[in-house]
Design brief:
This protein is α/β, with parallel strands linked by helices and about 280 residues long. About 35% of the residues lie in helices and about 20% in strands. It contains eleven helices and ten strands. The strands form two sheets. Strands 5-4-3-2-1-7-8-9 form an eight-stranded mixed β-sheet. The chain has a two-stranded antiparallel sheet with strand order 6-10. The structure holds iron/sulfur cluster. Iron/sulfur cluster binds near residues 203, 218 and 258.
Length: about 280
Amino acid sequence: MPMNLFVRYGKSAYVYARALARLFRGLLFGRVRSEYIALLFVKNRLRKESLLISIFVTATCSLQCEHCIMGNLLGARRGYSLSLEELRAFILISERSGYVFEIMLTGGEPLLWNNLKDALRILRASRMCAGLSLFTNATTIEPLFDAETVSYLDTIKVSQYRHNSENVDMLIRRYPSKVQIFHGEDFYVNPRVAVTHAVPALCLNPELFYFDYHMYACPHSASIAYGSGSTMQLANPLAVGFLKGLERIKHEQQYEICAYCISNEKVRLQVEKVANKGNLLRGRG
Ligand code: SF4
């Protein structure tokens, strides 16, 4: 015999039925904004899939590349280093939010980060980590001679320059299945003013960016804002549900941020590409 919910659950069944009826009326008359409906699905998807994030672990770098897209951030936050205490807070809140991430450590130069080995161990043991890699300029590769450190990494992404070929070759020989090479010989020149006809952006960088207790909608916005002086909201503070609203932020940052970004294909078509020559070891910390 079919069960009558209104008899069995009485008052609460009426409350839910009225809420559903209101939602349905709202949808019918266009009073519920589509982004709220989309959020229900996005949240569900985030719990099932992993997202790619860059975690900015240190502002220290062994190179000084003139056109580094992170240059403004490195200059403004000289000496910044992600603490293990903050990393643990980030992991805890990600797990409470039900998020799972493919994680890439960046900087600066992550191999110069004092907490590297402990951080990799902690991240690997967490439920929020679906994959772990780092991006290095391979000028100082000693931390990668440690078997335990390397065992935590799925991928070692390496920028190849004229002066680091010996180290790059050594890494390829030692870890052929883990090393991925990216050519760093030429750089697009970062524009100083917004490039016209560059939005909506054709963005080549899909990942999110974690830095200093905040999750940013994209990996370059913090650095571009330090250079352009933009004060718009680019990130959410670290708190349960911190991914909520990042799509909206990415949409709203187009004119103030994406129009300056060399990861925007429409910007690349309009700026110069130059040899990366100002990059020998003078240190930046
Ligand atoms: S600033 Fe815009 S174009 Fe550049 S990485 Fe971020 S979202 Fe992509």
